[in-house]
Task: structure prediction
Amino acid sequence: MRKQSKSMERKSRTSTNKNKNREFVIITYMFVGIFILMMGYFAYFQIFKSEDFINSPYNTRQDKFGEHVVRGSILSSDGKTLAETIVEEDGSETRYYPYGNMFAHAVGYDSNGKSGIESFANFNLLRSHAFFLEQIINGLKDEKNPGDNVITTLDYSVQEVAYNALGDNNGAVVVMEPETGKILAWVSKPDFNPNTIAADWESIISNTDSENSVLLNRVSQGLYPPGSTFKILTTLEYIRENPNYLDYTYDCTGSINKDETEIHCYDNSVHGTEDLKTSFAKSCNASYANIGLSLNKTSFAKLCNSLLFNADIPSAYPYQKSSFVLNEASDTSATMQTAIGQGQTLVTPLHMALITSAIANDGVLMKPYIIDHTENYKGISVKEYNPSTYGTLLNSQEAATMQEFMSYVVSDGTGSKLNGQSYEAAGKTGSAEYSNTKGESHAWFTGYASTEEKGTIVVTVIVEGGGAGSSVAVPIAKQVFDTYFNN
Result:
């Protein structure tokens, strides 16, 4: 009996020890697992995320790097210096912008805060990849190290022609490669001289009219009614809802009246009998107001949201969200106005360029980017920025149809000034009313052109108060295309 009792005690102790060992093993594995996860996240953070956090414009500690590093230069893709730091004999430093106003909104400023590339590439410009022995020697001599240079995707000649073509008008021009997302030009007016931003600051910020502020980057922050450029989206929705869209016909008499809402074609033009493609090419408001009344509003809103209305867009620059508010409760007037790009619909030029880029790139949108690479002061590459896909905004068949329609705008419609050139062009014009005064409208053009030798570029133009897109915005786009393809 005593032996049996001792045996049972031993078994009990063994069982207890096994349970304790099992608990110990489980706890050990848990801690090992947590440790591995922490190390994995630490490695992930160091490789992929640390630069984002350090380079955040909200990280004021970045400027501490300036105590040991001379801020690097910003250059165009073709080697033009767009911003540099001049160091005097007494050690004082001056940030200098050789081309003044021309690259103001693209490059930004580095005084009284930061904007543009000066802001979102701040970390890149304030770190040095000079040879480590050189850095040690400079440290011993209490001298600053030369900062890295940022090489942009901006093309000097394209930027120059876009800037000059916009002239004294307020508005914006953005140029990009749809196959890569590279930004070639970024122009916004009115502008400022970044060389005198500190001296001019009080007069700049004393302007309480935000819409006319020279600091407003109209490419990504200017919200405008899209006018007839929005017919791209109305057309897409009609095609999705009507597989037999080729059978569409409409007899335009110059206007349409429904439920006491009257829509006129631009300049009261009478277009006669049209199919869908002709309506698009002639930018017939009456026909598109008629189309709008036939659309499913919920489906229309879904399409617009999928094309980045009411949504974040891929942009390194601060931006405003475009807005589309049509819904099932919207009345006849709002429906007709929205279908022709008026009403409460608002869009930025950058957003229109992204939609156009997706169409030109067979439905796929590439993320726009403006920094090509960084290099140390001796020209040795530090980091490359490569094209990346944002997503598919429309399928390839829809893109092909819109390419056909936009080509017809140039060959037989309102974009005819681009016809018969050394390049093949396509696009959509627009005249967007912005007040109740008759004839007051913004001039729009968004489109693309290509050659086998130089590929494709997208150009989006808005001229505030410019009037007809066909007579004002298209010639600006043509100058950009001519320069890019004929140089």
